[in-house]
Amino acid sequence: MGSGWETVIGLETHVQLRTKSKMFCGCSTAFGAPPNTQVCPVCLGLPGALPQPNGAAIKLAVRAALALGCTVHPKSIFARKNYFYPDLPKGYQISQHEQPLATSGSLSFIAPERAAVTAGIIRLHVEEDAGKSIHDRFPKATAVDLNRSGVPLIEIVSAPDLRSPAEARAYLLTLKQLLEYLGISDCDMEKGSLRVDANVSIRRAGATELNTRTEVKNINSFAFVEKALTVERDRQIALVESGGSVTQQTMLYDSKENNVRPQRAKEESHDYRYFPEPDLPPLVLTPEFVAEQQSDLPELPSAKRDRFAAQYALSREHAAVLTASRTVAEYYENVVHAGAEPQAAANWVMTEALADAKDHQEELRVPAVALAQIVALVKGGTLSHQAAKRVFGEVASKGGDPRTVAEALGLVQVADANVLAGWVSDVLGAHASEVGRYKNGETKLMSFFLGQVMRASKGKADPKLAQRVLEEKLAS
Amino acid sequence: MSVTRDEVLRIARLAELDVDEDALPELADQMSRILDYVAQLSAVPANGSVKVFVPGADAIRFRADEVIPSPLAFGPKEFAPAFKEGFFVVPRLDQFE
Amino acid sequence: MSDAKAVADRLMKVKRLNALLTPPKDLRKSLSVQAAAARPTGVLYGMPVAVKDNICTLEFTTSCGSRILEGYRSPYDATAIAKLKAAGALIAGKTNCDEFAMGSSTEHSAYGRVIHPLDKTRVPGGSSGGSAALVGAGVVPAALGSETGGSVRQPASFCGVVGIKPTYGRVSRYGLVAFGSSLDQIGVLGRSVHDAARVLSVISGRDSRDATCEDRDPLRLPTVPESLQGFVVGLPREYFPPELDPAVRRACERAVRLMKEQGAAVREVSLPHTAYAVPTYYVIAPAEASSNLARYDGVRYGPRFDGAADLRTLYRTTRGQGFGPEVRRRILVGTYVLSAGYYDAYYRRAQQMRALIAQDFRNVFDRGVDLLFTPTTPTPAFKAGEKLGDPIAMYLSDIFTVTANLAGLPAMSIPIGQVKGLPIGGQLIGQAFLEDEMIEAAYALERVVPATDEA
Does the interface ipTM go beyond 0.90? Predict the structure, then answer.
């Protein structure tokens, strides 16, 4: 990006919390049910219904706040955000406004251009989700499904500390990783359990004041985050460079065309008329409760990555790959605890296990103990690396004990010196002139002899041992 | 304090309420008088030193995270004004995405 | 009173009052079914209790006196209704009321006004006018109403019956169609203190479905006391202003004399912020109402007044035509006082004033006063149409009742006399969650006060 412009980005992220029941009623939050079957008087907004807050949602929200280094407020207040929309059954959303659950946190991540970046988290609060409006199912009509109405959400608002679309994406991926580690959410943008709205403005490089910003919505994947923000940034730069000025408006991203267009002008800019929710007393958290959530926090991604690098002598990059997801990290450590040598285990997990998982809905199909055995079999010379990969594949799809599987497939390497001696003799006997040339100094013929021995043994000879026997025989 | 005709219209739009053109002057007048009447509240010191009063329970008592829906004797199909293939149906929003 | 047919017949006889919204045929049929299923061991076994139309019942419709819920059948029972049923009571129909409980005369119902049981030119009070009229006409021993600013006590005073508003948080609001959430409570109208109190006892108590309902056992019914020895009754001077109707004053003075004769100590006290109570109420109640009534949009239930054109038209026509003028007015005022730029000047100020009003009561109770006694209403029942011209004139009839709603305190009205042949009520205001003391005093007063005598 040239000519001295700086991009200023802040992100508002909505994350669905992984609870069994909704935020204010006992309806199920399970995804994929037939429309309007997971509903009750409360989440339908029927006359006379009242909210009943879900304690598990608060626990998860507090953990997220703590993991983001926020100040968790012992007392916070729910508030009504009033507006009309067909999938908002009460005509208001129960959210938090003046006294949110948590404020003043931060998220550190590696940015493409600036290396380590720490983005401020202004606030984190709890609210309920709205239902779903589907505009293309019926002609000239909107179909409304309230199954999602009332699902618990946390809203995480970052400070305008991001300086590029790539940074925004990196921030989100780091946030997603953190929340997955906490077990708080699926963070799936396609399924809608993580949603992002971005605030974008530009200013001259070196300037400190913030200019008029626009809001970018309708971003449905992490990749589109970067694309959408690039498009909007470029639009603003082009506008200002041609003498225009940025007006505050909402822009909708169109992923097919890769452009943004203004949301059709609404009659009124929103006046949400926030006021404290009279149907809910204050949300009071005891110090014991907060301390319990703090101590229940798992080892966070950055700490785990640093520990892996140190403890298992791994490079930073490898440690990052192995700790990208908590499931993989725990799997890796289980493999090591089952006796596998850490570096070998790292290679196996990063290559074979992750590749297999990618094709099988992220399932790590080979049990950690079994993978540790495979690693040991290679280390001990019983299996060649190639053979071990075949065994891995077998155990992945059909299960079983690796050693047994290897034997059944006839893959066990022969390390019996007598048998090897037999093959070596045969090979040397059949290639007398090469033997002569070798003894005259052409030592690189060793690989030829080795290849012949492997052929004779149909690949079963332990290559290291075979080479040793060859050397012995040729030396005599 | 005078509530103008235009303000009444603005508030009516926020509240999604149709207001009769003819009824506007009287409505503006009534609202003005009501708001004048309640403006007596400015007698309260404005410095925020007085806390607000909220009756009822002191703190939220949480519900366990269990799937136990509140009773619904019959579903939306029975009471919805327009219901098709399991969905509530409303006319398309022209001014929204 | 437990004969279903007899109840239905009595209700038919007072059809002219327009107090009942349930068609007599439906009521008769339902009462038979209910009577057969009622639990014989319930403490209210067989008692027919009429229910204000803004409380959700599986039986009949719940229209809140409005067109926007015309024909609406609730798919669930309010908690209070479930408790009544568990106690063996019969739900004796839904009663007419001011639309969404907004009003003080039941002239703002979309289904026609309710007529005073003793004088057809007068109002029964509101918003629980239908419930009060049926009890006043001797048709049912008790009825449920609701209170936001006095809507049980004021009609009780006008119709010559007992009306009790519990402490805020005593009775679950789950299933009470919300008007002013921080003020609303279900209340009871009854022929006698005993009838009203025993129904209140049954419907009270903890409910996890209402987060503002306190975690307490149901109200324990006190026994009728021997005397009022030991009770200190305060008379707040702001409720006996110089311009108070002399006949109402006389009735109150007589009641006070009778309480003294029964051993009560009586003291003059002051609640200095009383004058601000009505304006405070008329900021908070409409503000909360404007939000509570946003759900009535024609999308998920109720009729649509124009289902075709586009969404905005659906909303605006349904709400514009489905709501009556008083409701529309309050929604507009409420939306205004919450809107950007006005929230601090109006809503926040009102909540602060509310704290001062609540503090006035605490100060008085902390100085050894057990209960307060005041007139319930400044006048007996007024004539239909008399106060429709000016909304503020109507609001001022709540002047003695709104303070208890603002402070969340229990209060009740019992008949203490007549003024030119019309009943007038006296009000007791109690301490939070001490309804039993208030009811005890009411028993003692009821026993001796000549409620049918001119003051």
Answer: yes
Q: Within 10 A of C41 (CB to CB), how many other CB atoms are there?
A: 8
**Domains of chain B (ranges plus CATH)?**
1-44 (1.10.20)
For A376-394, what is each residue's pLDDT tens digit?
988 887 888 888 999 999 9
Predicted local confidence at residue B97, as pLDDT: 41
Q: Which residues of C are catalytic?
A: 52, 127, 151
Task: Find the CB nearest A281 among C177, C212, C301.
Answer: C212
Instruction: Give the model's pLDDT for residue B46.
Output: 62
Structure tokens at A451: 């290849």
Query: Does the beta-carbon distance from C211 to A275 stay under 8 Å?
Result: no
pLDDT digits 0-9 by tens, C402-444: 999 999 999 999 999 999 999 999 999 999 999 999 999 999 9
Question: Is residue C200 exposed (0-12), middle (13-18) or buried (19+ Cβ within 10 Å)?
Answer: buried
Taking CA atoms, what residue in C is nearest to A141? C310
User: Hey, how many other C-beta atoms are within 10 angstroms of the C-beta on C418?
Assistant: 20
Q: With beta carbons under 8 A apart, name residues in chain B contacting C182.
A: 54-56
User: Which chain B residues are Cβ-neighbours of A41 within 8 angstroms?
Assistant: 70, 72
Quick check: A183 and A303 in contact, CB under 8 A? Answer: no
Q: Which amino acid is at C376?
A: T
AA letter at C448: V
User: CA angle, corner C136, sides to C133 and C137, nearest 5?
Assistant: 85
Q: Which fold has domain C2-203?
A: Amidase signature (AS) enzymes (3.90.1300)
- Whether cis (ω within 30° of 0) applies to the bond prior to C127 is yes
DSSP, collapsed to helix, strand or coil, labels residue C225 as coil
pTM of the model: 0.91
Q: What is the pLDDT of residues A80-104, one digit of tens each?
A: 999 999 999 999 999 999 999 999 9
Record: contact C211-B92, CB cut-off 8 A: no
Nearest CB to A54 within list B62, B75, B76: B62
25-44 of B, contacting C, C-beta below 8 A: 27, 30-31, 33-35, 37-44
Whether A21 sits inside 8 A of B68 (CB atoms) is yes
Contact C347, C283 (CB under 8 A): yes
Q: Which residue of C has its CA nearest to A47?
A: C177
Tell me if B90 and C169 make a contact (CB, 8 A cut-off).
no
**Residue C250 at interface with chain B, using a CB cutoff of 8 Å:** no
pLDDT of B24 strictly over 60: yes
The secondary structure element, H or E, covering residue A90 is none
In degrees, rounded to 5, the angle at the alpha carbon of residue A333 between the alpha carbons of residues A327 and A338 is: 125
For C316, the closest of B17, B70, B72 (CB atoms) is B17
Segments making up each domain of chain C, as ranges? 2-203, 278-345
- Cβ distance of A28 and B62 shorter than 8 Å: no
